[in-house]
Write a structure and sequence with these properties.
By secondary structure, this protein is an alpha/beta fold. The chain has nine helices and twelve strands.
Length: 272
């Protein structure tokens, strides 16, 4: 049995465009699920721009151990299993590869990593709706996708494309996460929707998907992630950590709902 087949749920964290905080959301979601007592792994599927090593605080130059001349043992950081192209190449190396090479590298990382028996594997998808998204949907059973967006109209436009793509390949949409939803001034406490408001609700109404998280625009999220010590791992009392923990709970609720709806009809017997 491939190690990927021992994973209960594979969850994609995706976005239609870059710069909306998808990777930060993926990392903190994985850590939040781990805090709930689940066994969790995270795969950085962004071959061109891997960010997982820095975000998880893995020292540069750390390489996965190879088992049986084929399988990569995932690295462990903050209690969760990790793999990324960033562990295999120098951080300054530009991956100037065509699509077939990218797909081959992704499939090898997905299938040739010796994952443990995990409750969840979070896959941090590259931006867009390209080859890796299609390859993942065609090669393994994906339990669901979380779409990350900001309230900006341009981000919502691209998020729609992500939702449409996953619908076409029959991957359930677990919900939309509205990132950078609200900024609270650290001096006066004034709240301001810097990137607009209501974007997640418009997507929800248009596609019938739930808004399962609203994450703040907060300096601590950026600082802790850049330092390799994400806010969920480093500050359990922070408002952002509480938002990510709520998101993890909603993701589990949505997975239960999806699995219940896929159970099919049941036949009951009576004496009538």
């Amino acid at each position: 049995m491939r190690s990927i087949e021992k994973i209960n749920h594979i969850i994609c964290v995706a976005s239609g465009k870059g710069g909306v905080g998808k990777s930060t959301t993926a990392v903190n979601l994985a850590l939040a699920l781990s805090k709930l007592g689940r066994s969790v792994g995270i795969l950085d599927a962004d071959i061109y721009g891997p960010s997982l090593p820095m975000m998880m605080g893995v020292p540069e130059g750390t390489r996965p151990e190879i088992k049986d001349n084929k399988y990569m043992l995932p690295l462990k950081a903050h209690g969760i299993e990790c793999n990324s192209m960033g562990f295999l190449v120098d951080q300054k190396t530009a991956m100037v590869w065509r699509a077939p090479m990218i797909i081959s590298a992704f499939n090898q990382m997905l299938n040739d990593t010796a994952w443990s028996e995990l409750d969840y594997l979070i896959v941090d998808m590259p931006p867009g709706t390209g080859d890796i998204q299609l390859s993942l949907a065609q090669s393994v059973k994906v339990s669901g996708a979380v779409i990350v967006t900001t309230p900006q109209d341009v981000a919502l436009l691209d998020a729609r494309k992500g939702i449409e793509m996953f619908k076409k390949v029959d991957v359930p949409i677990l919900g939309v996460v509205e990132n950078m939803s609200m900024h609270t001034c650290s001096n006066c406490g004034h709240e301001e929707a810097i990137f607009g408001s209501g974007g997640g609700d418009r997507l929800s109404a248009e596609y019938g998907v739930e808004v399962i998280g609203r994450l703040p625009l907060d300096l601590t999220i950026r600082e802790t992630t850049d330092a390799g010590n994400p806010v969920v791992a480093s500050n359990s009392d922070h408002i952002a950590t509480k938002a990510y923990m709520e998101l993890a709970g909603r993701v589990e609720q949505q997975l239960l709902a999806v699995s219940s709806s896929n159970d099919g009809p049941t036949i009951s017997m009576s004496d009538d």
